[in-house]
TrEMBL record, chain B:
Keywords: Membrane, Transmembrane, Transmembrane helix. This is Uncharacterized protein. The chain crosses the membrane at residues 99-120, 132-156, 163-184, 204-223. The keyword Membrane applies. It comes from Agromyces luteolus. The lineage of its organism: Bacteria, Bacillati, Actinomycetota, Actinomycetes, Micrococcales.
Length: 109, 244
């Protein structure tokens, strides 16, 4: 069973991924907040969900190269990608949710 | 931007990192370092984004602190999962929502009961001439109980539920301590207990604070459309995996 936060992460991730190649935690938080006009999701909720989804194989992650972050003068980002299993899980759950209007469905387009 | 407000962001970020160090303490060093680095990156990204978006330093600091505070239960749950080696049994969100509603409804009923009890005792005391006036603490307790009655009724509809829980947070914070003070005028036993047990009023406020925190958590849960059970009950989907 996907929790709403997991469904929302997959939805946002699958929207960002084709454009950026991958996504990181705060980019997700910002996208989720912009979508539903809510406050930025808490650190604990976001990173616990990402951690759980990574362990479950719905996402894969890797730390970006330190030199890239150094060149930009910022800390390294942990970059996530939605896996095939994650996309399949999202599509199955989103069809149900879209009928209820609880996901944007952008990623399904 | 003033130097003082600059420091507000820095202080909020430091508080968040300090909390991260606390809840990652004693975990596998690699897991702990990953979480610490990820939070550090998040804080940097949020600050950079807020600056670019023209968001004030104070608003950014408030947002960072709010994100940290709202995430504490999840952080502790994550820590527990890391220590036990599994995420644990996950309750379905509709069930969690039902339990939360039941808990807040019980809180509402208890508050109404406290207000009604104080009202009944004071009316009786007035009728038999034990007291000649309604003390402020009793009047406030009765008023809070009445508000709690309205708030409990608001829990009945999904749309008004967050308002009901928010009202119960306010009444819950005050009603227990006020009811202790109200009893002072009525009961010789209560008088002795209140005078003898110095921690009674702080304890009543502590109970009230706990009740208020639970009700505020329920308000946040019900006010956020993304967490409503209609979204949660989605379900059917972890392809090839059993429900986690």
């Amino acid at each position: 069973m996907l929790l709403p936060i997991e469904l929302a992460i997959l939805d946002a991730g699958l929207t960002i991924q084709p454009r950026e190649g991958s996504f990181f935690g705060f980019a997700l938080a910002r996208t989720l907040a912009e979508r539903d006009g809510s406050a930025l999701v808490s650190h604990g909720t976001l990173y616990r969900a990402l951690n759980r989804m990574d362990a479950a194989g719905l996402l894969e992650s890797e730390w970006e190269a330190p030199e890239l972050a150094e060149a930009d003068g910022r800390p390294r980002r942990r970059l996530y990608r939605v896996t095939g299993a994650g996309e399949a899980a999202f599509r199955a759950a989103a069809r149900t949710e879209q009928q209820r209007g609880t996901v944007t469905g952008e990623a399904l387009a | 931007m003033s130097g003082r407000s600059d420091r507000a962001v820095e202080r909020a970020a430091r508080a968040t990192l300090h909390w991260t160090l606390r809840y990652t303490g004693g975990l596998d060093p690699l897991v702990a370092a990953d979480r610490q680095d990820e939070i550090l990156s998040d804080l940097h990204e949020q600050t950079a984004w807020a600056t670019e978006a023209g968001i004030g330093e104070r608003a950014t600091a408030r947002s960072i602190r709010a994100r940290m505070l709202r995430g504490i239960p999840a952080d502790l749950g994550w820590r527990r999962a890391q220590l036990s080696g599994r995420e644990g049994i996950r309750l379905s969100l509709p069930r969690v929502d039902g339990l939360l509603l039941a808990a807040v409804a019980v809180i509402g009923v208890v508050q109404v009961g406290v207000g009604a009890f104080i009202a009944a005792r004071h009316v009786r005391a007035l009728l038999i001439g034990d007291i000649g006036f309604i003390p402020n603490a009793a009047a406030l307790t009765i008023a809070l109980g009445s508000v709690a009655l309205v708030a409990t009724a608001l829990l009945g509809h999904r749309r008004t539920r967050p308002w009901g829980a928010a009202l119960l947070a306010v009444t819950g914070l005050l009603i227990f301590a006020q009811s202790v003070n109200a009893l002072y005028y009525l009961s010789a036993t209560a008088l002795l207990v209140i005078n003898g047990v110095t921690w009674l009023e702080p304890a009543a406020y502590a109970v009230g604070t706990g009740v208020a925190i639970l009700c505020l958590a329920a308000t946040a849960q019900w006010a956020n459309p993304a967490r409503r059970p209609s979204a949660a009950s989605a379900a059917s989907a972890l392809t090839g995996e059993e429900s986690r």
